[in-house]
What we know:
- The structure holds two protein chains of two kinds.
- Chain A is built from nine helices and ten strands.
- Chain A is globular, with a radius of gyration of 20 Å.
- By secondary structure, chain A is of the alpha/beta class.
- In chain A, the strands form two sheets. Chain A has a six-stranded mixed β-sheet with strand order 6-7-8-3-9-10, with helices on both faces.
- Chain B contains nine helices and no strands.
- Chain B has helices at residues 3-16, 19-53, 59-77, 80-95, 101-126, 130-138, 143-173, 185-196, 200-227.
- The A-B interface holds A 48, 50, 68, 73-77, 80-81, 83, 85-93, 100-101, 104-105, 156, 158-159, 169, 172-173, 176 and B 57, 129, 131-132, 134-142, 145, 149-150, 153-154, 230-235.
Amino acid sequence: xxxxxxxxxSFDKNEVLKGVDIKINKGxxxxxxxxxxxxxxxxxxxxxxxxDPTGGSIIFNGVDIADPKVDINIHRRRIGxxxxxxxxxxxxxxxxxxxxxxxxxxxxxxxxxxxxxFFSKNKQPVQSVAQIKKDAEENARxxxxxxxxEDKADAYPSTLSGGQKQRVAIIRSLAMxxxxxxxxxxxxxxxPEMVGEVLELMKELAQSGMTMVVVTHxxxxxxxxxxxxxxxxxxxxxxxxxxxxxxxxxQNARLKEFLSxxxx
Amino acid sequence: xxxxxxINKFIEIxxxxxxxxxVIEGLENTLKIxxxxxxxxxxxxxxxxxxxxxxxYKRLPRVLNSVCTFYVGFFRGTPMVVQLLxxxxxxxxxxxxxxxxxxxxxxxxxxxxxxxxxxxxxxGIQSVDYGQTxxxxxxxxxxxxTMMKIVIPQAVKNILPTLGNEFIVLIxxxxxxxxxxxxxxxxxxxxxxxxxxxxxxxxxAMAIIYIVIVCLITxxxxxxxxSLKKSDRRN
Lengths: 264, 235
């Protein structure tokens, strides 16, 4: 589904990614670990071009989205992203946060369809705006019910706890029906008490067959849920394996050292 | 002459000699210059702030950005009196344009406040956490949609108080338009003073009028701020 070929990224003269190759298939849960400053977050942020790659290509559903000529917004609809600091829209209520993009994207598609209909003979049926909103709201409420926060639908994000914010952020990206969701250290900014509820939701997503790429420091999650674990250091993938082999029989010297420090 | 006599003299000129006509005209011009100047300033400021915040990968935004830098540099780097004089006595005559002094004052106040307002807006937009932009872009919204729906509504809360401040500055700054012969409050009260050879009360009255206007605006801004505070319970 995502085919990363020789991905490079530099910030000015500082080369952070020095050629990363990885293939992410449908249903994979790829967990990325590595010391801080290793480039793991940059790698994740390049996957949806949040950072524009300086070299290499990212083939997503057959299109090289690293090419600056590609309309990245169309492809980002299919790639969800969850941030360390949630990044919920502060000026919108919880339900508006979830509905905003589905409604706006459906509306812009509708506009295009209306224009196309105007010029062509065989008219395609077009959804009404009211119907678009109704569908989006229904879907949003269903998703909120899934995480048990129906009663927070009209609350503003500033009134939620960290764990609640992150779970809303996850279903916000889910509302776009993405092919893959990228998680950028989703539990690092949470109180220890709230880490569990977020990991639980992520685990549930993984079990439902969602393709996920997760940058995290939660080794437990990597072992239990990951289908593959990737160790990034100094801008390249140093080791990639299934969780059992990865944690019990690491090959790379740097990884051995890293694991001995984090698995105390 | 005691103070009571001075007040009587002032009232005599104000009413019997139609001084109030001048005051009303001056008040009208003062408000006209400040309000229209602010409106023009907001339009220009928005345009410049837009150029300032859009990503600069391409050539055109970069060129526009340097033009805006020059514009802001000029209008912030020279006193407003100098700008008034330059426009009224240099730029417009050279172009062969003849405009009434009030119109020139409105134009210059607009151009000048545009430079300041652009900076107010730019800093207001940039004070919104970049995560908000990332959140919007990550769900597939374009840069402009993200700005319009998410960043700018939040920036307005930061911008509004400072914008009100700018309006107050404009109101007070109008007292320099007499340099190009526009009749504002200062001209009106100066007229009353000259006719009575007595300046104490007229200038006191002028100060009170300015204070009353500024207080009214302050109350108005407070009111608008409060109605925007709905989602503002920050952690």
